[in-house]
Amino acid sequence: MEKTWNNKAWFLVLPVLVVVAFSAVIPLMTVVNYAFNDTFGNNQFFWAGLEWFDEMVHSERLHEALGRQVLFSAIILAIEVPLGIFVALNMPKKGFWSSLVLVLMALPLLIPFNVVGTIWQIFGRVDIGLLGGALAALGVDYNYTSDPLDAWVTVIVMDVWHWTSLVALLCYAGLQSIPQAYYQAARIDQASRWAVFRHIELPKMKGVLLIAVLLRFMDSFMIYTEPFVVTGGGPGNSTTFLSIDLVKMAVGQFDLGPAAAFSLMYFVVIMLVSWVFYTVMSNMDRAGSDIPEEL
What we know:
Blueprint: H1 9-35, E1 37-39, E2 45-47, H2 51-57, H3 60-90, H4 96-106, H5 113-123, H6 130-137, H7 148-176, H8 180-188, H9 193-221, H10 225-230, H11 242-252, H12 256-288
Helix pairs in contact: 1-12, 2-12, 3-7, 3-9, 7-9, 9-12, 11-12
Protein name: ABC transporter permease
Family: Belongs to the binding-protein-dependent transport system permease family.
Transmembrane segments: 12-36, 70-89, 95-116, 151-175, 207-225, 259-278
């Protein structure tokens, strides 16, 4: 008997496809068009080939921004992932305090990006800010608008304050999924706290840690609003990350061709690094997910 196919379900998916086409595919094709063409206005384009890509690959400005971006993402992951795990391990597991802590941990995640930048811009000012004024009173020479190191510290602390809660909440969810039987077996075997963490809690958190690392890497690698509001990419170019440099090139200088090529390269880098993260951590998860019988 010949199988018949019912394609009516496509009518349900069609609205989503239309929305995606207008919100993602069409803008992406526009960027691709600018990346391979040059224009002198009046919507007239001239084929440029790989000229803009070659210019960006050999651009010292792009190399410096990429170096700052990689360094920032590495520092963020090195701080927020261990700190999030530590916070999750010490959060109350049940009762009133558990609910209260969960609400408090979620509060930074609810604040819009530009508001976070404004808060820390005011908070760090020496004249009116609580942090800047306190450091000045202690004799610490702190000024994020003129000192590159102070600007970096401010941006990093701001991001840690804003996003560590995400890692902590994901790890907390992973911990809550561990059956109590594992802890009971560990107590019977008189396992140390480190052994419980290493052989029970960490393997069970690997799945959520994978999600946390991927989300934090992608967010930190695409960060724009918070450092732009606080430092504007300064002092000098010390906090000009890739996204800030891209906006300056496209909007400030109106170099649409190089900016389009830059954005496509930016997109490919994020996709490749995310794929590497996902592959490596998935293999680690499959290799070490089993809990040993002896702790």
